[in-house]
Specification:
The complex is a heterodimer. Chain A is mostly helical. Chain A has helices at about 5, 10-25, 30-45, 50-70, 90-115, 120-130, 130-160, 170-200, 220-240, 260-290; strands at about 80-85, 85-90, 245, 250-255. Chain A has two domains: about 5-115 and about 215-290, no CATH class; about 125-200, no CATH class. The two termini of chain A are about 20 Å apart. Chain B is mainly α. Chain B folds into two domains: about 1-55; about 55-240, Arp2/3 complex 21 kDa subunit ARPC3 (Orthogonal Bundle). Chain B is globular and about 55 Å long. The termini of chain B are far apart. Classes of the chains: A mainly alpha, B mainly alpha.
Chain lengths: ~290, ~250
């Protein structure tokens, strides 16, 4: 299940970047469908639960994008109805449906992203390139819950003494501002202490080591040499216009030939890679278990 | 000097090259592609400069705490939707610590608060918008510190600017090309939110510039941090905290 998680972070990041950039900016429905299915299958096989609210949000966004698109672009040739004398065309509606699917696919891939690259590996990679920003991000991720807890403590104390427990919003805003201000004092003092402690422990000296060490192994190289050519095939097919589709005034797709089929297949394999590796691991797991 | 050269190369060669290359490859979606390139590549030289510069551990921790404050502030005021202190804290940082810390706090707040509220293609745009608002406030630090009225105007401008950038983002992503009509429709439907941003920015700036600015000024003086940014000791008096805010 965590084939990609165990790999060097460069591997899943290359895959994600290829999949995301191509689906975001290519206008080919087949690519969108691949990306969509790849993400959904991977989320299913990893048993990721999306809340009902999230799914509803996605659906509403999809419908909204699809339904409003014909209101703004009237380029299509087949009108369905006339709204205020302007045609509401079939082509524009189809384009809207495609656009909505693309947006949902991108959002789903951002969900997969969290599963594919564990946070600490991301910081390992990022820490090598931008050590200060990586440190800033890690410390903020630690400070935010801390500050929220401190704010909660201060609120509890204020409520206990009986100040600022007015329900009306002016008082609530005022008390929240006071909390903010006190929180600043408290946290800035701590920041200075933390800075002094870091300096005493040798922050900024050469020869820095990381919490996590990821070695780039032969297998990682193999994975990348699989991902990059697949991406290249799709890019070539896109660049030569074999995957072009124009929606207005009539839907015209470029005629299918070997290159376009190769491009679509290559992209589909890319999108399905996380799903396929997960399935492979699951099969292997049950196979080994059954022998025991 | 190296930084200068890098910035020049980036602005005059890399951004146009990537933008044009991508626009040729992704013919139909070139607006979305170019805007993404510009937002990402504009942030890079500033981040590069931040990495290259000598930043002490204490300075780094101060920036980290300010970023955490503005992220946590989004939770602290969660009971009032749309009411968040991000812009105010970014601007205050820029006024007292300089343009670059302002940019860093603004853009990092966007990145980090999306760890909680969801990452997506909008993240680079938010980083760009908030970072730029911080950087600009840092460049205008002197007049903004002196005159409360100007600061309020900046708060209004910040709310409108942020909304405009995000509406632009939605327009690029929800249609095949840029149509003014779609942009106006989106901006119109977001108008109540824009007004709320602007109003909340002004309220936060008025309420927090005094107390937080005072603390930042004190920390700078006491520990000798962020020395390259010039401030006037008289400036803080305009925002002297009175009993209602302390």
């Amino acid at each position: 299940m965590d084939t990609f998680r165990r790999r060097h972070p460069l591997v899943p990041l290359t895959l994600l970047l290829s999949v995301l950039l191509l689906v975001m900016f290519a206008q080919t429905p087949t690519l969108t469908v691949s990306a969509f299915l790849g993400a959904v299958l991977f989320l299913c096989v990893t048993k990721t639960k999306l809340s009902v609210k999230t799914v509803l949000c996605y659906l509403v966004l999809w419908v909204l994008v699809a339904v409003t698109n014909p209101l703004f672009s009237t380029g299509g040739a087949t009108p369905i109805v006339f709204v205020n004398g302007r045609p509401y065309t079939k082509e524009a509606l189809l384009y809207g449906i495609h656009l909505g699917a693309m947006l949902i696919a991108v959002l789903l891939w951002f969900r997969c992203d969290r599963l594919l690259v564990p946070e600490e590996n991301r910081f390992y990679l990022f820490g090598g390139i931008a050590p200060k920003l990586a440190l800033l991000i890690t410390t903020v991720l630690r400070f935010v819950p801390l500050l929220r807890r401190r704010a909660g403590e201060m609120r509890a104390a204020q409520t206990a003494v009986g100040v600022y427990d007015d329900p009306d919003w002016i008082h609530r805003t005022k008390s929240s501002m006071t909390t903010m201000s006190a929180l600043t004092t408290w946290s800035l003092e701590h920041a200075i202490d933390a800075g002094a402690a870091m300096k005493a422990r040798g922050y900024g000296l050469p020869g820095r080591t990381t919490y996590r060490t990821c070695r780039f192994r032969t297998m990682d190289g193999v994975c990348i040499t699989v991902i990059l050519p697949l991406t290249a095939v799709t890019v070539v097919a896109l660049a030569t216009g074999r995957l072009d589709i124009s929606y207005y005034p009539n839907i015209i797709t470029a005629p299918a030939d070997t290159l376009s089929r190769c491009g679509v297949t290559a992209y589909a394999v890319l999108c399905l890679l996380p799903f396929l590796t997960s399935v492979k691991e699951a099969i292997r797991w049950s196979f080994y278990r059954s022998k025991m | 000097m190296r930084y200068r050269r890098l910035t020049l190369v980036l602005f005059f060669l890399l951004i146009p090259a990537v933008a044009v290359g991508g626009a040729l490859l992704f013919r139909e979606k070139h607006y979305a592609w170019i805007s993404l390139c510009v937002t990402v590549l504009t942030c890079l030289p500033i981040f590069y400069d931040f990495e290259r510069r000598e930043t002490g551990a204490a300075e780094l921790m101060v920036l980290s705490v300010l970023t955490s404050l503005s992220v946590a502030g989004r939770f602290l005021f969660a009971w009032l939707p749309g009411f968040k202190p991000v812009t105010a804290i970014t601007v205050i940082t820029a006024l007292w610590l300089g343009a670059e810390p302002g940019f860093i706090v603004g853009s990092m707040t966007a990145l980090l608060s999306n760890f909680y509220f969801g990452q997506g293609p909008w993240t680079p745009f938010q980083m760009f918008a908030w970072g730029l608002l911080g950087g600009l406030a840092g460049l205008l630090a002197k007049p903004l510190r002196r005159h409360k009225l100007l600061l309020c105007l900046y708060g209004i401008f910040a709310g409108v600017f942020f909304s405009m950038v995000m509406d632009l983002f939605s327009t690029f992503w929800m249609g095949e090309t840029f149509t003014l009509k779609r942009y106006l429709a989106l901006a119109g439907s977001a108008l109540p939110l824009t007004i709320e941003y602007a109003v909340s920015n002004v309220i936060f700036l008025l309420a927090l510039t005094g107390p937080i600015g005072d603390k930042l000024d004190r920390i700078r003086g006491k520990y000798g941090l962020f020395r390259e940014h010039e401030t006037d000791p008289d400036d803080i008096r305009a925002f002297a905290p009175d009993e209602s805010t302390e």
